[in-house]
From TrEMBL:
The keyword Protein biosynthesis does not apply. It is a single-pass membrane protein; Single-pass type II membrane protein. Keywords: Cell membrane, Membrane, Protein transport, Transmembrane, Transmembrane helix, Transport. GO terms for cellular component: plasma membrane. It is found in: Cell membrane. It comes from Lutimaribacter saemankumensis. This is Biopolymer transport protein ExbD. One of its GO terms (biological process) is protein transport. Its main location: membrane. Belongs to the ExbD/TolR family. InterPro entries: ExbD.
Amino acid sequence: MTRKCTRTEREPTIALINIVFLMLVFFMVVGTLAAPLDGKLALVRTDGIEATAPSDALVIHPDGRMSHMGAPVGSAIAFFDTLPHEARSRVRIVPDRDLPAHQLVTLGRTLREAGAGTVVIVTERGLQ
């Protein structure tokens, strides 16, 4: 009497899991976007640095007054007219946090109508 050996069909899921895991490890190692920093490198600390507005920006005070590089400016159009032509494509304004929003929106519209390509509002986080 001979016994027949019955083989059961095994699913190749373990082999598939191993291949996927190895591919994951491979792409994690190869996919490094930037070289690591030198371990002895000490980065600059910015804890005590006071942020100041960019010099080419129009500063708007809480009462609506405007200034550029410390000098008072009569209107947004007057400020825009003093800009060199290459600076008119991107006009930066630094509003005080207490300036009413409707005044800031009106100022932005005025600069766009005057010919500004983009009006960028510089915020506190952008200064740091």
